[in-house]
């Protein structure tokens, strides 16, 4: 087979095309075999005692010299659900208060051959009901939270938004259901939002199946103006005279 000739320090671009038909991870290995153009080998003194790692990355000729060098690159293809114009799940709360919302997301294509879901239903929806007790225990860890089959996290457009929302939003997976006919999986999350000041920030709920496949759902966090703490009345004692009233302010932080 004829190969590609490369000059010293020349770059070689190898295009990789990925067209998944199911929501699962695909694995492949790209192997690059390099040999000298003049057909000569590379001498190697200890060719008879090549270690195991080196044997997998070279080809050895009959005389024990190195005939070619192999570069092996593993490739993981992770399909992502098509990005449609989804309606964001809105979580709204007054500043200095705390609210809990249920967010329900539908995952299609988890089971190969599952029917596609209508675009109108492929969205995240928030309800105002508080979460009921869940019998199935779901273990959650910090960062990318791990369940039996899924990983999930909230992603933000910038580090600035992440620093604002990171400590104000909590998320837990509380229920998981599968439709046996369509193969569609429903995940129900409990979202806790406790803003300390008015804001309006966007986030993306990213769900990844451990067998491969990524789904993304937009979310919108809105914190409105807080309630008035108190009303201070100052009575006038006369024209051109000062009236003074004292009150205490307590800092919420150090």
UniProtKB/TrEMBL annotation:
GO biological process, one term: sperm axoneme assembly
Domain CFAP47-like immunoglobulin-like: 80-224
Highest taxon above the source species: Eukaryota
GO cellular component: cilium
PANTHER family: CILIA- AND FLAGELLA-ASSOCIATED PROTEIN 47
Protein name in the entry: CFA47 protein
Source organism of the structure: Psophia crepitans
Lineage of source species: Eukaryota, Metazoa, Chordata, Craniata, Vertebrata
């Amino acid at each position: 087979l004829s190969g590609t000739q490369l000059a010293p320090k020349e770059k070689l671009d190898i295009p990789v095309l990925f067209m998944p038909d199911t929501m699962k991870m695909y694995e492949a290995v790209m192997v690059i075999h390099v040999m000298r153009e003049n057909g000569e080998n590379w001498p190697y003194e200890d060719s008879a005692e090549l270690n195991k790692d080196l044997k997998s990355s070279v080809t050895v000729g009959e005389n024990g010299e190195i005939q070619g060098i192999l570069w092996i690159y593993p490739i993981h293809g992770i399909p992502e659900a098509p990005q449609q114009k989804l309606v964001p799940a809105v979580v709204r709360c007054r500043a200095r208060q705390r609210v809990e919302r249920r967010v329900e997301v539908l995952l299609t294509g988890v089971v190969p051959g599952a029917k596609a879901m209508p675009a109108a239903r492929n969205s995240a929806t928030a309800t105002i009901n508080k979460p009921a007790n869940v019998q199935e225990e779901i273990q959650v860890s910090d960062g990318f939270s791990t369940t039996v089959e899924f990983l999930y996290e909230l992603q933000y457009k910038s580090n600035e938004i992440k620093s604002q929302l990171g400590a104000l939003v909590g998320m837990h997976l509380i229920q998981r259901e599968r439709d046996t006919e369509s193969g569609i999986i429903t995940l129900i999350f409990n979202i806790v939002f406790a803003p300390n000041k008015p804001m309006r920030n966007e986030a993306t709920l990213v769900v990844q199946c451990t067998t491969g496949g990524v789904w993304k759902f937009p979310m919108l966090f809105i914190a409105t103006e807080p309630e008035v703490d108190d009303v201070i009345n100052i009575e006038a004692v006369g024209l051109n005279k000062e009236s003074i009233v004292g009150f205490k302010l307590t800092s919420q932080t150090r």
